[in-house]
Input
Amino acid sequence: MMLASFSACSQTGHGSLTPLAGPGVTLASTEGLPEDTARLSGGGVTADVTGRWSDRNETIEIRYHAGPAPVRIAIRSAAVGAARVATSAWDRTKPFPGNAIGRPLLDEAPLVIAARGEARVQIEFVRSKGPSLSIGDAVTLAVPMPDGLRPITFRAGGQ
Output
């Protein structure tokens, strides 16, 4: 009985983030990505966004695809509207010497993507104050794009 209770509790403390369609946000099913993928387009780039959550943080992974011209994206610890503020960001496109996560991006030099190039970025949003996230809760996160931050609302789901 105690084991069943413990299992039920641990299931509710983390899971996937399901994006909600909204202005400028479409839901995509892209080969190699989870079904729960948000797609943004603008400023010469398309971004596919997936996410995970725990009771104290949210993490999104963004796969940027540039068009015919190179693009620059500023990754800042700012938010737009009700969106949460990023606490760390990493360029996961290629290995970074001395850091298994990737090259730090938050408030550093902008991410530059070559024409027709791709980049993978991981951004974390830590909850130091306020209530913990639970299954079914909605959270709005800011996704950096070349033309500014774009809010995406996600719903916290289970495994």
Summary: Helices lie at 2-11. Confidence is low (pLDDT under 50) at residues 1-11.
